[in-house]
Amino acid sequence: ISQVYVIDFGLAKRYRDSTTNRHIPYREHKNLTGTARYASSNTHLGIEQSRRDDLESLGYVLLYFLRGSLPWQGLKAATKKQKYEKICEKKISTPIEVLCKSCPVEFASYFHYCKSLTFDQRPDYGFVKRLFRD
Prior knowledge:
The protein is mainly α. It has one domain (1-134): Orthogonal Bundle (Transferase(Phosphotransferase), domain 1).
């Protein structure tokens, strides 16, 4: 198999206002939307999701495909909220170099790039493609 199709638009939303074409506003105190295992650190912190979060989440999916697990899997807690908090703590406290240990170096570069993006910044998708192709 040489191609994988990841398709799930159930939680998709526009990142631009359809009337003004402006980027959606930065907001805080949002509830976690999506699967905690793959959610971006900012999503766990209650920050509105944007394109940078999509890329970070994709990185976690790719790491999962490569390794079969992620460091925050299997954490136990009494409640769902506490479990999400533990996952968040683990994601934030795990350095990128540790997260990507034993992986191709492109993964660490990818996550550093994702973390460097601002909320409304347009990612350089060409750079991301070249990172994994070259």
